[in-house]
Write a structure and sequence with these properties.
alpha/beta; Rossmann fold; 6-phosphogluconate dehydrogenase C-terminal fold; six-stranded parallel sheet; elongated
């Protein structure tokens, strides 16, 4: 039996539409309402079954809802919370899927004060290069991690509902402090994406870009795959997690300096030590995560 009679998804892109599809597949949501910026994307979501109804009136959409999911780009969160605050019924649980959590919590404290007990900040660590409802999948969250960064004010029942929803999607739910979340995700997600975008931009500005792309192999493909992600979403994430990303960039710049110095000095020993240390760490992580072995990319 569905334990969510009325679910509202604000922002029915890849993440939001996949949430709807997963809950529908699990039989956990009875009626799913979608709001978003573009009618065409919302129609795609409705045809796929991710939502049942398209709604333009926010107050009408959230009336009687048990759960509201904010899945719009994180830069829109303050505006959405401010619009939700006067129309949301007491007891309706609100969660989000933003990739940064300190900025979301700051927005909630500013614009969503009286509803803080019903607000459960969250982040599904899942995604794909495609964006929009057309790329959504009901199994996107299967076996993936979802991090909840509850506030001291958050009701246990609200956390329970959001946890149950994500578990119905097939996800593993973790609890974490928001500052720790932003540091960890800044290093293992936000920094790699920023570097992927920057490297792809470097290649496409090279005078020999056509030949570079023509001869690019699996190494290039693996490194730049995430540069196909939503530019708007990643712009907002990088700005929202600015401090953690700047610290990561500083550390990466130090590593690049080590490489440059070793190359200039033709110091093969330093290069070997760095490469061997990194290679061993990467293999160990791959084995722990159950990753299939890969050959050398060229």
């Amino acid at each position: 039996m569905p334990f969510i009679r009325r679910l509202v998804i604000i922002g029915v892109g890849l993440i939001g539409a996949s949430f709807g599809l997963a809950l529908r597949r699990a039989g956990a949501a009875e009626r799913i309402i979608g709001l978003g910026r573009t009618r065409a994307n919302l129609e795609t979501a409705r045809r796929s079954g991710a939502i049942d109804e398209i709604q333009e009136d926010l107050a009408a959409a959230v009336r009687g809802a048990e759960l509201v999911m904010l899945a719009a780009p994180v830069g829109q969160t303050p505006r959405i919370l401010a619009q939700l605050e006067p129309v949301l019924e007491r007891g309706t649980v609100v969660t989000d899927a933003g990739s940064t959590k300190q900025s979301v919590i700051a927005a909630a404290r500013t614009f969503f004060g009286r509803h803080l007990p019903s607000f459960v900040p969250g982040h599904p660590v899942a995604g794909a290069e495609s964006s929009g409802a057309a790329g959504a999948s009901g199994d996107l969250y299967e076996g993936r991690n979802v991090i909840l960064t509850s506030l001291p004010e958050t009701d246990a029942a609200a956390v329970g509902l959001v946890t149950a929803a994500w578990e119905a999607c097939g996800a593993r739910v973790y609890r974490m402090d928001a500052a720790e979340h932003d540091h960890v995700l800044g290093m293992v997600s936000h920094l790699p994406h920023a570097l992927g975008f920057a490297f792809m931009d470097l290649v496409t500005r090279d005078p020999s870009r056509e030949r570079l792309l023509e001869l690019a192999g699996t190494g290039f493909r693996d490194f730049t795959r995430i540069a196909g992600s939503s530019p708007e979403m990643w712009r907002d994430i990088c700005l929202a997690n600015r401090d953690s990303l700047l610290a990561g960039l500083d550390g990466f710049a130090d590593c690049v300096d080590v490489l440059r110095t070793a190359l200039e000095a033709q110091d093969g020993s330093t290069l070997s030590q760095l490469f061997e240390r990194a290679s061993a760490a990467r293999r160990q992580w791959g084995e722990r995560s159950g990753e299939a072995p890969h050959g050398s990319g060229q």
